Every structure is written in C-alpha cells, then in structure tokens.
Amino acid sequence: MNDPSQNRRLSLNVPNGSSNSGGGGSGNATGSGRTKIALKPGYGLMGWIRFQSNAKNLTNIIQSSGSNDPHLNMITITELSKHDQPDDCWIAIRGKVFNITAYLDYHPGGQDELMKAAGKNATNMFEDVHGWVNYENLLEKCFIGRLVGHDF
Fold first, then answer.
1. Which domain of life does the protein's organism represent (predicted)?
2. Alpha helices, DSSP H only, in the chain?
3. pLDDT, tens digit, 9 for 90 and up, residues 96-109
4. Mean pLDDT, residues 78-86
5. Which of 52, 54, 143, 147 has the fewest CB atoms within 10 Å, i.e. is most exposed?
C-alpha cells in the first residue's frame, strides 16, 4: 500500500559557483555584462534611500536668483564639463543635470563607472546600461537644472 519510492529523498546537484555556466560568459552571475562591486556597509540602494531622505539639498548649489526651483536653472555643456572630479561630479541624463557627488559611493557599479560620465552628457552611457532605472526619483535631491539645448 505504501510505495517505498515515494519516501525517497530527492537531491539536486547544484554547481558550487566555481564555473561560469549560466553567466553568459560575461563574468557575472546575471550575464548582464554589468559589474557590481562590494560596497561599504550601509551603502547601496537602501543606504542611499535613507541618506537622501534625510538630506535637504544634495546639489551643493546656493540659489542666488531667489528661486529654489532647479527647473529654472539652465546649465551649459561648458559649465557641466567643469564638474568632472570625485569631489565635484555632475552628469546630465536626458537633458537634466545632477550633482552626483554624494551618490558616488552608493552606486553598485562603483565610483569608477560613474566617473566615466563625469562632466558629460551621459544619456547614451546611461541608456546602454540603465535605461530602465528611475533616475529622476533616485537622484531627485541632486537635480541642479536643465542642460541648455536639450529637452526633457
């Protein structure tokens, strides 16, 4: 009445991770071609969300015009290009300029990846890797203004 084969335990042979099978040959587990680095404890997406939710202004810009609306700020490509260092890092994505200096240590791909876009219109680089990311929400408190000559 009781079939002994039903009481047998099944086991699966799972690779120990030493091979790159299933990774698409890209060197990472997802095969996405993106590389993630080990971040300091407390950094990463949740750390960034906590940090920026308590911050009032991550732009490091004092409004001299009397307006606190960054949508009124027009940033030239020349001005953008001056901000290409880890301690002063601006990027433009889809016509919006962000001061990402505070975000550098939180980026899953590491600071070096973001520095490739520092002081530049990074729209194409961003689209190639992160087109699905809601950057406007993620970098909302870093928004400085609009890039001259670009609509968004």
1. Eukaryota
2. 45-54, 77-81, 111-115, 123-130, 135-138
3. 999 999 999 999 88
4. 96
5. 54
